[in-house]
Amino acid sequence: MPAVPAGYTSGGQINKPSCFDRVKIGFTMGFTVGMVTGIVFGGFTGLRYGLRGRELLSTVGKSVISAGGTFGTFMAIGSAIRC
């Protein structure tokens, strides 16, 4: 199924995403980018300190949630400003 464009028509009317929908999409995209960044930097930092196994996964998990939440929040705020 193809993606729906931003100004799709439904019954002859043009429907655009609401401001809240844009903020949710911004947070989701930011959280995803932050998660990838957290995996990369948290993984390299843990390996540099010599962590292995559960210690490494715990450190990477904390950095993923932290980076994802931070970047997602900033993207949501930026999306809200643009509404």
UniProtKB/TrEMBL annotation:
UniProt cross-references to Pfam families, sorted A to Z: Romo1
Determine if Membrane is one of this entry's keywords: yes
The organism's superkingdom is given as: Eukaryota
Segments passing through the bilayer: 25-47
Give me any GO biological process, just one.
protein import into mitochondrial matrix
Q: Which GO terms describe its cellular component?
A: TIM23 mitochondrial import inner membrane translocase complex
- What keywords are assigned to this protein? Membrane, Transmembrane, Transmembrane helix
InterPro entries associated with the record = Romo1/Mgr2
Spell out the subcellular localization from the entry. Answer: Membrane
What does this protein do, in the record's words? Has antibacterial activity against a variety of bacteria including S.aureus, P.aeruginosa and M.tuberculosis. Acts by inducing bacterial membrane breakage. Induces production of reactive oxygen species (ROS) which are necessary for cell proliferation. May play a role in inducing oxidative DNA damage and replicative senescence. May play a role in the coordination of mitochondrial morphology and cell proliferation.
Say which family it is in: Belongs to the MGR2 family.
The record ties this protein, via PANTHER family, to: REACTIVE OXYGEN SPECIES MODULATOR 1
| Identification of the protein by name | Reactive oxygen species modulator 1
Q: Which species is this record about?
A: Rotaria sordida
Upper taxonomic lineage: Eukaryota, Metazoa, Spiralia, Gnathifera, Rotifera
